[in-house]
Amino acid sequence: MIDRLKTGACALVLACAGWSAPPALAQSTTAGEPFVVEYTYKVEWGHLDEFISLFKKNHYPVLQRLKQLGYVRDIGVAYPVNHAGEADRWDMRVTVTFRDANASLPDPAVDKAIIAELYPDKKTFEREEQRRFELLIEHTDVPVFLEDMKDWDAPAPEA
User: Fold this and answer.
1) Of the candidates 97, 80, 113, which has an alpha carbon nearest to the alpha carbon of residue 37?
2) CA 137 from centre of chain
3) Residue 16: which residues within 8 A CB-CB, separation 6 or more?
4) 138 and 87 in contact (C-beta within 8 Å)?
5) pLDDT 10s digit of each residue in the chain, 159 long?
6) I need a surface site. Which of 37, 131, 132, 155 has the fewest CB within 10 A?
7) What's the alpha-carbon Rg for the chain, to the nearest Å?
């Protein structure tokens, strides 16, 4: 059972690194164009600081390493200024711009190497990542299309 939990926690870590785009979606994008995924996190009330601390310690370095390796172009984080009703609430949004759709797909060899390089104490890493996911109420991964608005320019309506 413990091994199954560890495996599940590692799979969740990798999914959150942006490696969850389905192949059909990846094939539907133009080759070589950036591929953007927005990850939203809804955290148990009163635990956002702990979640952010664990994210900064254990997940952000993975994203940074992916950027150094050329898989990721940009990483951004946003927090809502006001809160919504519980059904629509989210606490943190991470937007990752990948080099292209293929860069967002899993590569087990790269995944394993990054985690081994950054976290030599595998048990602590797995325990802390498990805790980070225990704090979540909901987590979404939404690939988004960013439209180039250069062709949106239109004459102003006549008054």
Assistant:
1) 97
2) 16
3) 39, 59, 139, 141
4) no
5) 333 333 344 444 444 444 444 443 444 456 789 999 999 999 999 999 999 999 999 999 999 999 999 999 999 999 999 878 889 999 999 999 999 999 999 899 998 999 999 999 999 999 999 999 999 999 999 999 888 888 887 777 777
6) 155
7) 18
